[in-house]
Amino acid sequence: MPHANRPSGAPRVIALTMVKNEQDIIEPMLRHNARLLDALIVLDNGSVDDTRMIALSLARELGNIVVTDSAGFGYTQGERMTRLLHAAQTSYFADFVLFLDADEFIGSASRTSFHRELAKIPPGGAGAVTWRNFVFTGGAAEVDPLSGLTQRLANEALPITKTVLRLDGRFQADLAVGRGSHLATHGGVPLAVLPLPELPLWHFAVRSQAQLTAKALVGWLACLAANPHAAKTPQSYHWRDMFRRIVHGPGFGVSDLRRLSLHYADPNLASGQSWPAEPAVVDDSPAIDRTRRYSTGEFIDPLILLARSWEQALRARDPLFTADEAVDAVIDIPPFRFLREKHRLMSVLDVGCGIGLGLELFSRLGVLDLAGVGTLPPESLVLRRGGYVRHDPAAGFTLGRQYDLVLCLNTPAGGSARDALTLMANVDRHARTMIAFSLDSPGLKTIAEWLARWRQMDWVPDLMETLALRCLSSSAALRRGLVILRRTSARVSDGQQADMHHHVVHDEAAQDRSSGKRAMPGGATPDGAACDDAGGRHATGEHPAADGTSGDDVTVHNAAHDYATAELLAIAERPYRMPAPVAGVHEEALLDAAQSSWLGYAVPA
């Protein structure tokens, strides 16, 4: 079974989706699919509407949604999804991987029934889930698209399928995803697929006049940007033909939307041809969570969207860092951008900050309240603002406050136990609820030792947050050894518990559970170790009062902590070769094939 080696006893199922300008449907799509998945990774392809903001809001609320960016205008979905698959599989090591578009909803009522269908796919094989195309009926669909889409085709005359991979936790470097994620290849050979008729994919392609107009215009121009000869190929013929209907006539109004939805992606319906006979439809109201907290279902004006898209594609963009600033360093933007945006971090302390590059990254990401502790002279730092204390991180100190996030990265694994405990006490003293920790030599034994030490200090891994940031990282050391730690006295993210209990619900705000003052290990404040505050909150070193947690809750949380540690150690046991660092500025989580060695796991088992 694919979950045989999982401490949770359940398969890990993730989905990858590339989205662009989908503000009308992205919220219900993410809500519906996330409840069935352990992680849903959203690759935003330069949206100029509210799509990205909505996805981030749901990442905060639900906990198992990851948001990152790949903004190139040209439509190269297959290439990007292949690279995202490799990044995801060398961090999550999923048992099953799905590929979804923003208008696709998994047609399953529960995780149990979903897993039962996935288990039919043979090991190392692929499954095929078929579109059930819903038909535009007008009226309410202009306001909230799902409320007006309650009919679907009775039979799919031209069934179109999407691929589901069964990997059973393995990474295969020669897997590739085709255009539209309708097929996958292994070593260039298409994978044989097993149809899964009991697992449909509800498809809502035509939702409003504004949505379809924008999709046709921007979609076809993106195809031409990727391949100027696209008009001579059969690829994306539906976008090409809808584009021609708009530009050359007759165009389409609301009355045409139903007919377009009845024949969506039908290659027999070429531009200018008369409409075929209307196929039979059936009433169907799929069980979809239509809750909207961050959207209304309204689509942006197509003219505004087109103008914004071309402006974004053509204008020069100032990079967050220049290449000259990373001659001998890896500036790994995507994982820390996501961490900053998801948790709305306002203050960051870096213990062992080196030249301050990590703090400077958070500064440019908008964090104003920054501080660093390290051994270099202040004139050696690249940090432009924030406080700095020149002090040995392995000697006790206190700054008299706590921070939203404390960084303790590339920690020497081979130091003395005494120095390690003092360093950890320093980090513990200043961390409010979250620590980002990594070792310079992240082997199985050292990771296990340090996680055990952190557990004794009431800090445990947040599994799904850790895997998310590893997935987005282009630093081999971080992909192998980064761990996000949360206090056990804080409420464990329900996204982490859910990975254990087969149900994902996120507790939006982590809350401290312990009460009273916490002893401050590490000794008295050393001379000169006071740090000027950059305008943030001053913490007292106290935790909020207890919230009446029951013994049963504590047992569940302890089980989740043990499960997270077991999963991370199981990953650390995998064969791995630490590649040489790829110096430079990495603004996207997707590296090209020439840089694939950073994955590290592409070695014989």
Structure, described:
The protein is of the alpha/beta class and 605 residues long. Helices cover 31% and strands 17% of the residues. The protein has 16 helices and 23 strands. The chain has helices at 26-34, 51-62, 77-92, 111-118, 209-226, 237-248, 254-262, 302-314, 333-343, 357-364, 417-430, 444-456, 463-472, 476-481, 494-501, 551-572; strands at 13-19, 39-44, 65-69, 96-100, 104-106, 126-135, 151-153, 161-166, 175-177, 184-186, 189-190, 193-195, 201-203, 281-283, 330-332, 347-351, 369-374, 387-390, 405-411, 434-439, 459-461, 483-487, 584-586. Strands 1, 2, 3, 4, 5, 6, 7, 8, 12, 13 and 14 form an 11-stranded mixed β-sheet that branches. The chain has a 7-stranded mixed β-sheet with strand order 18-17-16-19-20-22-21, sandwiched between helices. A 3-stranded antiparallel β-sheet has the order 9-10-11. Strand 16, helix 10 (357-364) and strand 17 (369-374) form a beta-alpha-beta unit. It is globular and about 80 Å long. The relative contact order is 0.12. Mean pLDDT is 82; it is low at 490-554.
Considering the chains and any ligands shown, give keywords for the structure.
seven-stranded mixed beta sheet, 17% strand, 605 residues, globular, alpha/beta
